[in-house]
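Comment on the following before class.
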Amino acid sequence: MASLGVLLVEEKKATEGLVRPFINWAKALSSRHRFVFLLYKPGLPLVEAVSQQRNVEVYSYTDFKRLSHDVNELRLDLLFIHDHIRNLQVLARLRRENVRLGVYVQVLFGIHSIADVFTLDYLANSEKFVYKLTRLIPFTLLKKWYVSLLSSSHLVIANSRITATLLHVLYGVEPSGVVYPPVDTEILRPRSQKRNMQVLLYLGSHAGDTDVKLVTEMAELLSREETEVLAFGNKTLREYVAKKFRFKQVVDVSDEELAEIYSSSVVTVAPQKWETFGYVPVESMACGTPVLAFNMMGPIETVIHGRTGWLAENRREFLQYLSTIIKGDLEIEPEYVRRHVEEHFSLAVTSAKLEDIIRRYV
């Protein structure tokens, strides 16, 4: 039995995409290993959610010295953290402690300075300023800082093959392996026996990751066809679009409620061009609902074109697929869609891969 720790820095909710993998792994691994959460300056909703987990130890801190002391005293075999820059900065301060450190890479800091798939049209001026400022900083400088912080760890795991490739090619970092973020298929499962003629539209989780012009084109198409649309994700974009179109907004729902929404929708539309993995498409498929996404980044690895969803090569094809789907001219077997997730992204499958890497490197 290993003693595993997870350090989360300034996180607010357990439902955040960067946090969710660790919450789910705790469900699978805490019965076989000691599992410890170290929460540094957390939000109350995160503390409450993690404290409800079975067979886990939870420690919360506002003082770094106490955190550093406990990291030494808890005698962990491995302390995991994700690669948001604030996490890596804390990790660097802990590298002198008597613990092996592991990073689960999901963010790829600095990539915004060279990627040209982000749209700033609907952002507040303060957010636009930050993104434009990032574009002025040479990627080599951002990369150097990020890689130096990653070097504080003993183990680097990528959340997808595309992430592993980018680590190799752009950052010169060789990951120890690839482990997909786990999906709790006990909660996220088909719930409704009847699918409504409604489309679930995901508007992204980060500023600028969803093209507002494409969303507008989709909204106009769906409006012409009198299709009901449920929208969730980025608050700024959700409110921006809601002013122009009659979208029902999905806000602050539980995983059980989300599973009901996925299950009763004919398709989940995820138009992001930058998702190193993409939880939403996989959660949707876990509920037997196919996905419409672009044939790039994370969806290439998670969606099987024509079997669990559709992958468009460009905007024109994306809109064509959407039009055909809502007319009922494309059909997919829900049972196969669900089985695909169970075989590749379930708690059991991903936790076994994580354990294998831990055994080899720790």
About this structure: DSSP finds 15 helices and 13 strands in the chain. The mean pLDDT is 90.
